[in-house]
Each structure stands twice: as C-alpha cells, then as structure tokens.
C-alpha cells in the first residue's frame, strides 16, 4: 500500500480556509512532507483591500513557510489561488474555475468556518452550514474526487457528556432552519437564537453540528471523513515548536496572563483541559485523507481528535503548572506588561469574583485615574471589560468535563507504516505537557505578538520596575492603613507599641550576644 506521501504524489488538492490558522499549517505540511503533490488549489477571498493573490503571496512569505522555502524555493508554483467568497451563491467561483476544479481535484479539505463564539446565527449558518452544503455539491461534480475531509469540532456535540465517533441527529433539520431564517430579519433571529441553540453555548457549536449532518447526507456519493479536534493550540514540533498566529482559545488567555492583565480565571480543577497541538491535528487530517481515499469506507468516518482519553491534562494541573507558565513569562517576559504575570485558576465562583474585583477592576481603576490625571484617555477598564467578555465565553469549556471516544484515531495510527507514524505523528501519548506549555508561551511572544527575543533584557527590566512599584505601593498602603488605625484606636496604638518594644528587645538581645561572642 502507498505511504501517505506516495499517495499525495501527483494529486490535486482543494483547500478552504487556507489563510486561517489550521489551513496554513495544512498547506505547509502538505508541501513539506508530500513534496510530490501536484498542486494545491486554495479557495480564498479578497479581504481588507488586498486581492486574493496578494493575500496568498503574503501568506507564503511568512515564517511558517521557512522550512518549505529552504527545501524548495519554488514551492509557490504549486499553489493556485481561486477567488471564492463562501458566503455567496455558488461560493462565487467563476464558471471557468468550477470547470477547472471539477476536472482535476482529487482530495478536498474543508477548513473554512467562522469560529467566533458570538457570531450572529444567520452569519454562522451561512458560512458553517450553507457554504458546506455548496462545497459538497461542488465536490459531487468532481470527476476524480477520492476523499472529502471536513473539519468539525469536538464540541459540536458539547450538549452531551460522552461523545462517540458517530454523527448525532442534528438539533433541527438544517434545510428547515435555512428556509425559516431566510425571511426573518436580524432582530427576530437574535431573539429566537437562545431557544434554537438550546443546550449548546453558542451559534458556533450549533452550526458545526448541523454541518456534520449536511456532510453525512452525502456519504453515499462521496468518501467522507470528519475530523473533530478539541482545543487546538500552538504546534508541538512542526514546523517549529510553539508556532501559533492568533488569540483564540488558550492563546489569548496565555497572552493576557503574560501581560499581567489576567490574574484569575474560573476552571474546574478535575476537568480535562483537552488541548491538542495544531501539527498533530494536521498530521491526523492528512492521514485521514490518505485512509479515506485508499480504503473508501462505506460511510463517513468520524475522528475525535482529542487528548483527554489518552494523555489527560487537567485544569487543576494547569493551575499547578501556572507557576511554570508564569515563570516562563518571567524568564521570557512579554513587552510592556501591565503587571508582573501572576495568574490563578479557581473553581470557586465567589473567589473568582473577589479576585476580579481586587486584581482586575481595582488596578484598572487606579491606572485609569492615573491616565486621566496625566491628561491621557483612560483605557484599562475598557480592556478589562473585553477580557471579561472573552473569558466568560471560554468558561463554558473550562468548567466542564467531556469524554471523547477516540478509537478511530488509534485505528488510523495502527494503519500507518512506521515511517509515516514519524512523519505524520499524532501520537498524543508523546506530549510532555509542561514542555509543550512553555513552548506555547514563547510561541505567543514570538509569532503572535512578533516580539523580538533580543529585547528580553529590556522586558525583564520593565518587570523589575513593576515589582518595585508594587513594593512601594504596598508599603505606602500598609503605612496609610496603619496610620488611620493608630489615629483612631487605642488598641491599635497598644499593639503598635508592643510590637515596636518587642523588636527593640530582640535587637538589643542580638547586639548583646554578638558582643559577648566577639
Ligand atoms: C490563567 C491561564 C489559564 C490558561 C487557560 C487556558 C485556556 C483557556 C480556556 C478555555 C479555552 C476554551 C476554548 C474552547 C474552544 C472550543 C474549540 C473550538 O472548536 S473552536 C475555536 C475556538 N474559537 C475561539 O477561540 C474564538 C473565540 N473568540 C471569539 O469568539 C471572539 O474573539 C470574542 C472572544 C467574542 C471577542 O470578540 P471581540 O469582538 O471583542 O474581539 P475580536 O476577536 O474581534 O478581536 C479584536 C481585536 O483584538 C485582538 N485581540 C483579541 N484577543 C486579544 C488579546 N488577548 N490580546 C490582545 N489583542 C487581542 C484581535 O486579534 C483583534 O485584532 P484585529 O482587529 O487587529 O484583528
Ligand atoms: N482553532 C480551534 O481551536 C479549532 C478549530 N476547529 C475547526 O477548524 C477549522 C479551522 O479553524 P481555524 O483555522 O482555527 O479558523 P480561522 O478563523 O483561523 O480560519 C478560518 C478560515 O476560514 C476562512 N473564511 C471565513 N469566512 C470566509 C468566507 N466568507 N469566504 C471564504 N473564506 C472564509 C478564513 O478566510 P479569511 O482569511 O479570508 O478570513 C480563514 O481562512 C474550522 O472549521 C474550525 O471549526 C475545530 C476545533 C478547534
């Protein structure tokens, strides 16, 4: 049987969402580890005043592609951008491009989606469900298609506690929902959204569940695999440890903690923090593409791409490693930190609220007061309000526990040759969590914030300055409180005199004993 790289040799691959976090890693890995792949057709839209060609060229110059560039400086010749806006009818692909794609594509990877937790339902439905439906229709017209790989999320069925590798009945028939939302204005849809999504926390997980069903409906006509990653984090090893390019999920949390802004977060200590590195997800995705095309399973195969059942890492452990994370940020500080990094995880709502008040709101108020007094615009309270909104959306995932069955992931691994198991490694048992988290933190600094590692001494100096400010502030606060007490209470004065005389006696005793020994 062909190895994975042998299988992709000479193949034309279509990728949606290639400019996104996972899509980029998929493109890079395909080019690097399957160098004989014929061409990658990327469905890309123009955005922010940039044409799709410009966007793809920019993407290929980014650091992520350094290793591919080293191996093959002409790799860009294999990349063929196709203009497409997935929110438009027919995905806004020109008839010539449709003809080209239906004539040559062998494998489709569908990564595009809106992953925002606060996306209005109509928008999420349009992109995550209707666009998926349209892509499936296009795929059915492809003459040589061997595999259709759909990227879903392990949380598509987060209303269940135990999640098997099956496609569950959808919360509503997607066709009916699409038809009914068509005539409703945005206000009505916003009002009925909570009723519709029911026991799911957001429109993202709801529409991803519908998308799975839409894909499954075509399992008789297409060879389908559905990949369900949990919380996708920075890369473990490839192309560099710690590669990450966004603020989603844990990345924003780590950055906010590293900047000393986030000091407290609520999580269930005993629950699994189901993080999975992006390179492992992509390795599994490529392996699933190969398996689907070679074995052509009769029905869609679902891969729960998670770590919890195999190499669990708990929120409580993050709580313990947090010192590791924080000391990593103290060794490699982020620039312009607001305070020294020192975050805590608690499962207790009231304790969390207390720390939010003391460690978030109070310092923000003081800093904004300082900004106002120095003639600047206050900004810290606004930043904290945004942070609290983001954290409140993430807390659903950090305060509960799920159990995913990942037998298909194990089955797939057992099908790989020893060589492929190394090149397309998704053996999550090999993850060393403290080391991974440390590289993740450094990755946020290097690749998300684009901070220069040579500026670390200045950042450390800044942290020392913050420490001195804190010591001075705390001392002044204690003296102030004590002065208030001393002025008002005879008992406080008595305690004060008692402590001072005790200190004095100790000093005299030590001086006397050191004179005797000399
Ligand atoms: C104390 C340490 C503890 C460690 C704890 C670790 C982990 C965290 C806990 C839980 C993680 C659970 C995650 C569950 C994932 C479920 C799995 C999935 O299937 S999918 C993908 C996950 N999706 C997301 O993560 C998206 C979530 N984000 C959103 O929905 C939105 O971003 C938002 C939270 C609603 C905020 O929206 P808002 O409009 O306010 O902001 P924008 O996102 O538009 O950003 C505006 C602007 O700001 C930049 N930004 C964002 N975050 C930060 C930040 N932390 N610091 C600095 N800047 C930030 C952002 O890039 C935008 O910039 P620009 O306008 O230039 O693009
Ligand atoms: N990140 C995570 O933690 C997890 C992600 N997933 C799934 O993985 C997949 C990829 O996620 P991720 O890479 O993180 O997401 P990103 O937000 O980083 O990328 C989304 C991609 O979709 C494209 N896209 C969005 N809207 C449109 C549109 N209207 N027309 C054309 N393209 C569009 C974006 O293009 P553009 O650059 O033009 O905006 C981008 O390339 C998703 O299906 C997601 O559900 C699953 C589990 C966890």
Rg estimate, integer Å: 28 Å
Look at the structure and name the CATH superfamily of the largest domain. NAD(P)-binding Rossmann-like Domain
Structural class: alpha/beta
Largest sheet: 7 strands, parallel
CATH T-level topology of the largest domain: Rossmann fold
- Can you list the ligands bound to this structure? ligand LBKI3ST6, NADPH dihydro-nicotinamide-adenine-dinucleotide phosphate
Overall geometric form: elongated
Number of domains: 2
Extended strand count: 13
Number of helices: 19
**What's the average pLDDT?**
92
Percentage of β-strand residues: 5-15%
Secondary-structure arrangement, i.e. CATH architecture of the largest domain: 3-Layer(aba) Sandwich
Give helix % range.
Answer: 40-55%
Strand order across the biggest sheet? 3-2-1-4-5-7-11
Distance between the termini: 87 Å
Written description of the protein model:
- There is one protein chain.
- The chain has helices at 4-8, 21-33, 52-61, 66-71, 95-104, 121-140, 174-182, 186-197, 203-216, 250-258, 278-295, 315-331, 349-373, 380-398, 407-415, 418-423, 433-448, 456-488, 490-517; strands at 12-16, 39-44, 79-83, 107-110, 147-151, 162-163, 224-229, 231-233, 264-266, 275-277, 301-305, 344-346, 403-404.
- It has 518 residues and is of the alpha/beta class.
- It has 2 domains: 4-242 and 268-311 and 402-422, Rossmann fold; 458-517.
- The strands form 4 sheets. It has a 7-stranded parallel β-sheet, sandwiched between helices.
- Strand 1 (12-16), helix 2 (21-33) and strand 2 (39-44) form a beta-alpha-beta unit.
- It is elongated, with a radius of gyration of 28 Å.
- NADPH dihydro-nicotinamide-adenine-dinucleotide phosphate (NDP) binds at residues 17-23, 45, 47, 84-87, 111-115, 127, 151, 153, 208, 229, 231-232, 246, 248-249.
